[in-house]
Amino acid sequence: VSLTALGTPAIATHVTAGILVIAGATVAHAKIRTEIATLKKGSYFLFALWLFLAAGAVYRVSSLALFIDDVSRTEHAYQREFRELNDPELTEPFYLQHNCSTCYLVAAHLAGSGAENLYDKKHYRNAEVKTPVHQEIGDAFNVDQYQYPPPFLLGPYLALLTGLDFFQIRALWFAFSVILFVLTSAAITVWICGWRFHALWLIWPTLLISPTVIATLQMGNAHAFMILIAMLAMVCFQKRWHLVGGGLLAYATLSKFFPGIVVAYLLFQRRWLALGWTIAWIIVLCAATLLAFGTTPFEALLSHQLPALASGEAFSFAFTKPG
User: Would you say the pTM of this structure is higher than 0.90?
Assistant: First the structure.
């Protein structure tokens, strides 16, 4: 999908997929033979179930990738209409028209250009002054409203600096999110039960095939991404990779706030080394945000966004259509 979005002929997608499948099968062959040889008799069913679920997850994500590659291929998208809500007011095909990456990139452009208040909703869905990102998106998606703290924008801003357009970044973000999901799920499973086959190995294909994850991947939302890197940070701390774990947890906390509960957990457990690296990375990321965008986004966060979150005004649009 990423190769196609970057201008490579469509056949490159199939060739790349074929190479990955062959390489993965070759690497896994010896491991699978060893596992099958050591499986208990009652575990063959679980192993067969894992293969079935994994094949289903690969099929579902691959099908969704066709919609990520081409927004006109809506037959591969998740929930094309509000058929399950039966609400006459909800006429928009939400899952087709809503994409969270729109606000990430628009906000990154606004922050980079010195906008006074990047949280003002006038900059987004019905903006009178269109950004280049608006122009690239066109009518494909409604532009979402940005709600996150300023340090989150470091990632989208770096993506804009590459010179790629919205749809190319969207395809790469999708591919990166899928890879991160699989690797993080596998890392947590291995940390819990090791490399020997166990029922916990059913976790990642089961989650990856679930409607909530598929919808999140389709909409390009960063919420699941922050959950994943916060979990991966904890695995890194357990492995004593404090430098990596601190960076992951710091970025998650500065991006969505809620991973900060894990920082409190480290404090209560007196895990000073992990806590120290996390705080150090928080300082580094805040400094990088100040260097990139100045103090204006932080001033807007304190004066506009935090009060709007506290009062509920930031998500007032959610109350206009209760369904």
Answer: no
